[in-house]
């Protein structure tokens, strides 16, 4: 066969081969499905910063205290000078002011009265019902005949208070750190100045 009769065959085949090689090369290229996506290392993962609402054990309140009530009604912001004879008090009375209030035969139904102010208050025959009165101020208060069983009076100020005839059996009353300077004790004796926790 006279190959000169087909002068363009070889050049065309060569060009076709080059084109085919290019197509094959293009088709043979492995396309990374993540090639068009942002680099994972460069795109920060969105993380939620919200955490469950928890209260550390050392910050948790000892009890869930309800709003303060007197005879089932919301208590005023302070009860200084109030007539609360036979009243039933419940809830959160921490720091509440009962200065010179008449609380004769009142009943403290649980809750907290820590840091409350009972200066010159009358609490004759009041029932403390194991309430929390830590750090409360009973200076010159009249607690004669009061039922103190189970009451927590640690750190309370009972300077010159009258506890004559109060019911406080054995170790049923917590008095650690309580100031009893000049207080009239259950048996009628007068506590020495400097009496703390016990009447000397």
Task: Explain the overall architecture.
The protein has 200 residues and is low in regular secondary structure. The chain is 10% helix and 4% strand. It has 1 helix and 4 strands, in the order αββββ. A 4-stranded mixed β-sheet has the order 2-1-3-4, with no helix packed on it. It is globular. The relative contact order is 0.08.
Topology:
Blueprint lengths: L8 H19 L41 E2 L2 E2 L13 E3 L16 E2 L92
Parallel strand pairs: 3-4
Antiparallel strand pairs: 1-2, 1-3
Average of per-residue pLDDT values: 80
Q: How many helical stretches?
A: 1
Question: What Rg do the Cα atoms give?
Answer: 43 Å
Apparent shape: globular
Number of strands: 4
Largest sheet: 4 strands, mixed
N-C termini distance: 139 Å
Would you list the SSEs in sequence order as H and E? HEEEE
Proportion of β residues? under 5%
User: Helix- and strand-based class?
Assistant: little secondary structure
- Percent helix, as a range, is under 10%
Main-sheet strand order equals: 2-1-3-4
Supply the key terms:
little secondary structure, 10% helix, 200 residues, 4% strand, globular
């Amino acid at each position: 066969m006279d190959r000169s009769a087909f002068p363009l065959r070889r050049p065309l085949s060569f060009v076709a081969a080059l084109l085919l090689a290019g197509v094959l090369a293009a088709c043979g290229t492995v396309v990374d499905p993540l090639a068009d996506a942002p680099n994972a290392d460069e795109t920060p993962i969105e993380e939620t910063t919200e955490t469950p609402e928890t209260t550390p054990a050392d910050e948790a309140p000892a009890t869930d205290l309800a709003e303060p009530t007197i005879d089932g009604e919301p208590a005023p912001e302070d009860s200084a000078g109030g007539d609360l004879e036979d009243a039933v008090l419940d809830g959160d009375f921490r720091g509440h002011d009962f200065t010179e209030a008449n609380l004769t035969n009142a009943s403290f139904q649980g809750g907290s009265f820590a840091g409350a102010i009972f200066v010159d208050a009358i609490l004759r025959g009041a029932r403390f019902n194991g309430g929390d009165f830590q750090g409360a101020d009973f200076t010159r208060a009249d607690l004669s005949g009061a039922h103190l069983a189970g009451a927590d009076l640690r750190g309370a100020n009972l300077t010159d208070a009258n506890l004559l005839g109060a019911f406080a059996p054995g170790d049923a009353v917590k008095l650690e750190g309580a100031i009893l300077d000049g207080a009239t004790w259950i048996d009628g004796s007068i506590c020495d100045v400097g009496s703390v926790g016990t009447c000397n």
